[in-house]
Write a structure and sequence with these properties.
rRNA (uridine-C5-)-methyltransferase activity; EC 2.1.1.190; single chain; Rossmann fold; binds S-adenosylmethionine; SAM-dependent_MTases_sf; globular; OB fold (Dihydrolipoamide Acetyltransferase, E2P); 9 helices; 7-stranded mixed sheet; alpha+beta; MeTrfase_TrmA_AS
Length: 504
């Protein structure tokens, strides 16, 4: 096989980057512009030792999954990897990817995987948008005055690029996002506010982050800046407040209202979207979200699941796997604002009440973001759950101390915590090996692993397998329609509950 060669390919899979995958001359070929179900003519663009890259030059037989997404930015904006594929196709691809990773990387022969749980209406589901701001660069005039080169664009990056597509609508986001972005464009123009230019490391506005609590309508606008403040910010606050307040009432009867405006300081060269410092310049420092009977406060830097509908599906799966009776001791690792742990605490409270045995269970969460831990402890109080506590620290460092018992900063002796269940919900990178070893050493009856990356999930399932935990079953949940990401909830159980675990 060589560069420039044309070949006919049957596409039967999709890569993480959204390229179709076919096979020719015993090699996998990653084909831009193709999707599973297509038969295409592809031109080879690069040949590696075991695989090749190609572009589609002709579609001979189109996939039954092919559609035109009704978005003016489809194909340009890098947000929707699956913009050209119908929802049925997206679900099929994601389910197959999870299964394939569990087999290939997890070393499982026939993993029991339930069908992926999709959404009835896979639109307007996102409660958080992170939009880069650009003016195409800045120029410095005589006297050091800096000016924008072009007009203000706020939107999402093009695929594999830092060019910003100016999105005035988005099919995935909640309505407050585009409303707030539009007034920010107007304000930056009328008040000559500069956007950050990474080339010169100058200019003010970097990102607009909007969080929407869909269960209450509360909205938080976070203005990420390369500076200390925004000139004339009271005008901007008024404009944003009016724009959000004028939005149509949600289908569930709830009205949107801007409850929090935060400046996030993120100076100089950095790949992080947000810095560590936040200043509330209007309203409250948190917004309140409602999920069923429960309420959660969310601060600017805290993680919260981006799809509230599927979040409930996911957490109900955790509860189904946990089968709580009311007396369990649960560790909720990577706990964010405490949502999973508090769902479990509430389920234990109900189970204990129904069985007349009372609620003797306990939840202990560990999370590295301080703001999220403060939210989590407040959320326990807000929901009247006295048996849940949350600690700040890196899970891999705190877990061994929690299991062994320790003396805290105030000099109190904290006894060892012997868990019946450990819940793991790490970021995409998965769990540190030492955390998995400590998890197995604690020998809980069950481990429930919630993951947003099937590859690291499979890797960690394999490690836990060697440490004495067998894969029972898993369920993929589509948290992120139109994108390549998929969430999975997996149940593992102790192979031999009475013995201590083997070491790696
Ligand atoms: C995928 S989120 C899950 C949050 C929560 N379980 C939920 O459902 O909303 C992962 C969380 O882990 C936190 N985190 C990242 N690395 C960590 C570490 N080494 N130790 C503890 N927490 C960490 C992040 O701040 C984030 O809140």
């Amino acid at each position: 096989m060589e560069k420039g060669q044309k070949c006919q390919l049957q596409i039967d899979d999709m890569s993480n980057e959204g390229q179709g995958i076919g096979r020719a001359e015993g090699m996998a070929v990653f084909v831009k512009g193709a999707m599973p179900g297509d038969t295409v003519i592809a031109e080879i663009t690069k040949v590696k030792k075991n695989y090749a890259f190609a572009v589609t030059t002709e579609i001979i037989e189109p996939s039954p999954y092919r559609i035109e997404m009704e978005c003016p930015y489809a194909g340009d904006c890098g947000g929707c990897t699956y913009a050209g594929m119908n929802y049925e196709g997206q679900l099929a691809v994601k389910e197959r990817q999870v299964r394939e990773k569990l087999i290939r990387l997890g070393g499982l022969e026939h993993p029991k995987l339930n069908p992926i749980v999709g959404m009835d209406k896979p639109y307007a589901y996102r409660n958080k948008a992170q939009m880069p701001i650009s003016t195409g660069g800045i120029i410095t005039r005589k006297g050091g005055i800096i000016e924008n080169l072009g007009k203000c664009t706020i939107g999402f990056y093009k695929a594999k690029s830092h060019d910003v597509v100016n999105c005035t609508q988005c099919l995935l986001q909640a309505p407050p996002v585009t409303a707030v972005a539009e007034v920010l464009r107007q304000f930056m123009k009328s008040d000559n506010i500069t956007a950050y230019d990474p080339k010169w490391e100058k200019g003010l506005m970097r990102h607009l982050v909007v969080k929407t609590a869909m269960g209450t309508g509360e909205v938080m606008a976070i203005l990420v800046i390369n500076g200390k403040g925004i000139p004339n910010s009271s005008k901007l606050i008024e404009m944003m407040d009016e724009a959000v307040g004028n939005l149509p009432v949600q289908e569930n009867g709830i009205e949107y209202s801007l409850e929090s405006v935060v400046i996030n300081i993120n100076k100089g060269k950095t790949s992080e979207i947000m810095g560590k410092e936040c200043l509330t310049i209007a309203g409250k420092p948190t917004i309140l979200e409602r999920v069923g009977d429960m309420e959660f406060e969310i601060s600017p830097l805290a993680f919260y699941q981006v799809n509230p509908v599927q979040m409930e599906v996911l957490y109900n799966k955790v509860l189904e796997y946990a089968q709580l009776k009311g007396h369990e001791r649960i560790l909720d690792l990577y706990c964010g604002v405490g949502t999973i742990g508090l769902f479990c605490a509430e389920a234990m409270r109900k189970a204990g009440k129904d069985a007349d045995t009372g609620n003797t269970g306990q939840v202990l969460g560990i999370e590295s973001v301080k703001g999220a831990v403060l939210d989590a402890n407040r959320n326990a109080v807000i929901n009247g759950l006295v048996n849940a506590q949350f600690l700040c620290g890196r899970a891999e460092e705190e877990l061994p101390k929690v299991l062994a018992g320790y003396v805290d900063k105030e000099g109190f002796e904290i006894p060892p915590f012997q868990p019946d269940l450990i819940i793991l919900d790490p970021p995409r990178a998965g769990c540190a090996p030492e955390l998995l070893e400590a998890t197995a050493a604690a020998a809980p009856d069950k481990v429930i692993y919630v993951s947003c990356d099937p590859a690291t999930l499979a890797r960690d399932v394999k490690i836990l397998g060697k440490l004495g935990y067998k894969f029972v079953e898993g369920t993929p949940v589509d948290m992120f329609p139109w994108t390549r990401c998929v969430e999975t909830c997996v149940l593992l159980s102790h192979k031999n509950p009475q013995t201590s675990p083997p070491s790696l």
